């Protein structure tokens, strides 16, 4: 499948999301514990640190749910959507256009694992938000992408990212997954099994500790890095590009 200059590997995480984009919202809202709370926390963090009407990049926008939550906090935000899945970007741009047509500043299909993913993006973002995406990147890619985010932010701009973590000696991930399994019963079994099997087969995660990622963010040149919210393995980290003196 040829999309905006790159071919989606049919065995990849991005291809998994391409294949179930239309079912994503029903699955995610029902199955992922505190999914909406997590998105609302992204929006709340944005509201605390970023002035209204900010320029925002939604990195790995999926169907646009983090941007939609953010727009409820700041209806004048101007949002650029980016995801590796063209299907996801299409759904997200439809959702954001319907919510607030003037808010959609642009969209791109790009794989964060391919250098040049940020080509064409105009630096100076007030915030970059990313929810449940960075955990899919191998660690070296994660570090490169955080460096790219720093370059794209304006001085004083914020990176706000929600993702899954693994901590030594804790079963927080297993506990979270057990809750997902339990909640799957709330869905039509055909839909639930289709998505769960697809994710099982194709989705790749790279979990690390919060301390490890905090260190990578600081080394990339972000400051004020802190975890601001957590539910089991799901946590929100924020950090800003230092002001220029
Ligand atoms: C669990 S969904 C999260 C979507 C959305 N941010 C949300 O909170 O609902 C993960 C998203 O990350 C995207 N993704 C995963 N790996 C990616 C990569 N290497 N480059 C770009 N997007 C990627 C997928 O296509 C998918 O839309």
Helix-strand layout with pairing:
Layout: E1 2-3, E2 6-7, H1 13-20, H2 24-31, H3 35-49, E3 55-59, H4 65-73, E4 78-83, H5 86-99, E5 104-109, E6 125-131, H6 139-152, E7 153-164, H7 172-183, H8 189-202, H9 210-219, E8 223-231, E9 234-240
Parallel strand pairs: 3-4, 3-6, 4-5, 6-7
Antiparallel strand pairs: 1-2, 7-9, 8-9
The protein binds S-adenosylmethionine (SAM).
Structure notes:
This protein has 245 residues and is α/β, with parallel strands linked by helices. The protein has one domain: Vaccinia Virus protein VP39 (Rossmann fold). Helices cover 42% and strands 23% of the residues. It has helices at residues 13-20, 24-31, 35-49, 65-73, 86-99, 139-152, 172-183, 189-202, 210-219, and strands at residues 2-3, 6-7, 55-59, 78-83, 104-109, 125-131, 153-164, 223-231, 234-240. The strands form 2 sheets. It has a 7-stranded mixed beta sheet, with helices on both faces. It has a two-stranded antiparallel sheet with strand order 1-2. α5 (86-99) links the parallel β4 and β5. α1 (13-20) packs antiparallel against α8 (189-202) and α4 runs parallel beside α5 (86-99). It is globular and about 55 Å long. The model has no long low-confidence stretch (mean pLDDT 94). Bound molecules: S-adenosylmethionine (SAM). S-adenosylmethionine binds next to α1 and α4.
């Amino acid at each position: 499948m040829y999309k905006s200059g790159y071919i989606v590997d049919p065995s990849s995480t991005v291809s998994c999301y391409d294949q179930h984009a239309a079912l994503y919202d029903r699955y995610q809202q029902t199955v992922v514990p505190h999914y909406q709370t997590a998105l609302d926390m992204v929006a709340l963090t944005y509201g605390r640190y970023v002035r209204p009407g900010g320029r925002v990049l939604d990195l790995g926008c999926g169907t646009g749910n983090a941007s939609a939550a953010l727009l409820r906090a700041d209806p004048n935000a101007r949002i650029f959507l980016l995801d590796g899945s063209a299907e996801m970007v299409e759904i997200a741009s439809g959702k954001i256009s319907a919510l607030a047509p003037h808010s959609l500043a642009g969209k791109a299909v790009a794989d964060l694992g391919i250098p040049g993913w940020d080509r064409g993006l105009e630096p100076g973002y007030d915030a970059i938000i990313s929810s449940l995406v960075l955990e899919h990147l191998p660690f070296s890619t994660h570090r490169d992408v955080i460096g790219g985010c720093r370059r794209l932010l304006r001085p004083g701009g914020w990176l706000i990212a929600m993702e899954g973590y693994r901590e030594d000696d804790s079963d927080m991930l297993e506990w979270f997954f057990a809750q997902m399994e339990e909640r799957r019963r709330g869905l039509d079994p055909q839909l639930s099994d289709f998505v769960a099997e697809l994710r099982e087969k194709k989705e790749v995660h790279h979990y690390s500790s919060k301390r490890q990622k905090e260190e990578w963010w600081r080394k990339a040149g972000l400051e004020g890095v802190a975890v601001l919210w957590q539910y089991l393995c799901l946590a929100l980290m924020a950090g800003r590009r230092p002001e220029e003196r």
